[in-house]
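Input (SAM-dependent methyltransferase):
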Amino acid sequence: MTDHVTRTRAAYDTVAESYAEVLRDELAASPWDRAMLTTFAEMVGTTGPVGDLGCGPGRLTGYLASLGLDVFGVDLSPGMVAVAKRSHPALRFEVGSLLALDLDDGALAGALAWYSLIHTPPEQLPRVAAELARVLAPGGILLTAFQVGDEPRHLSRAYGHDISLEAYRLPPDGVAELLTEAGFEIEARLVRRPQPQEKTPQAYLLARKLAG
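Output:
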């Protein structure tokens, strides 16, 4: 296990309970988030299973299930997975890493990577993009969201806890290029200004895996 994976897992294990509490109702206050998630759900429809990859406490896994998707969650943090299972007992959650997902090639009709790329060092993002492409079937839909920027940040405290964690703001053009090189076609992109509690613009990219 790489150092950044170990640190990320430890940090999210530490904050899992308070993270889930703080973000419990955030989706209700974000029409842009709901709009992108709903569009993603409509594009995937009933074509196959969907992975919420980096699902945290499962709040978006539950939302996608409410929209009719056959969805399950994967997260690096056992603490987050435990909260997700408790909060959404009817859904499936498992521990796993975006660097090496325990999924067959082409297993998914849709993949959500919601702020789950932001702790991967930029030099390893091509590997993550390739893994997302591997697990999606041709024509499968990917939605990712992230903070806009091009600099790393070290987090020493979050959600009321002391942690040690690197977070990377990402340039939308750079992420789009990575996905294109991994075999995706960008369907849409949205960059919105920050809400009062946010420090930077936020980006959403919707992409389709090309055939062949």
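The two ends are 32 Å apart (CA to CA).
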